[in-house]
């Protein structure tokens, strides 16, 4: 694909039609950026290797993402860790925790219907039909920060803030 100004993007795919390489080139064909992708046996991305930074991903035995790491070249030929994440799940694949750089962690709670009820200090409330109706820091849902409104066919029609102001319609 040629962009305005003559810069080109080239995509390469393997026999399974998975993206294996993206390249960005100047009009004079000088390489600006290149990212190569490698995959595991169930087509989960294992690596994204770029000119300036790399990403590695690992998965649990059920092929759920459980860790990712971003590294960059240090100029000495060694990769320097820039960012890492870890994820844990329960037996039905609900995310239980998300840890970033081993310093900050988010936890998640669910009800018996496997609906998210709490992520850190944000609480989620549902109606009898299972529709998300509010979220906020109020544990009871009586004074939510955000409300979700549905029509008689249970289609989302409006989102309002705690004061009733329209966020989306």
Descriptive notes:
This protein is mainly beta. It folds into 3 domains: 1-36, no CATH class; 52-109, no CATH class; 111-169, no CATH class. 0% of the residues lie in helices and 57% in strands. The chain has a 15-stranded antiparallel beta sheet, with no helix packed on it. A hairpin with a 5-residue loop joins strand 1 and strand 2. The model has no long low-confidence stretch (mean pLDDT 93).
Write the layout of secondary structure elements.
Blueprint: E1 8-13, E2 19-25, E3 31-39, E4 45-50, E5 53-59, E6 65-73, E7 79-89, E8 95-100, E9 104-110, E10 116-119, E11 122-126, E12 132-136, E13 146-150, E14 156-161, E15 166-168
Antiparallel strand pairs: 1-2, 2-3, 3-4, 4-5, 5-6, 6-7, 7-8, 8-9, 9-10, 10-11, 11-12, 12-13, 13-14, 14-15
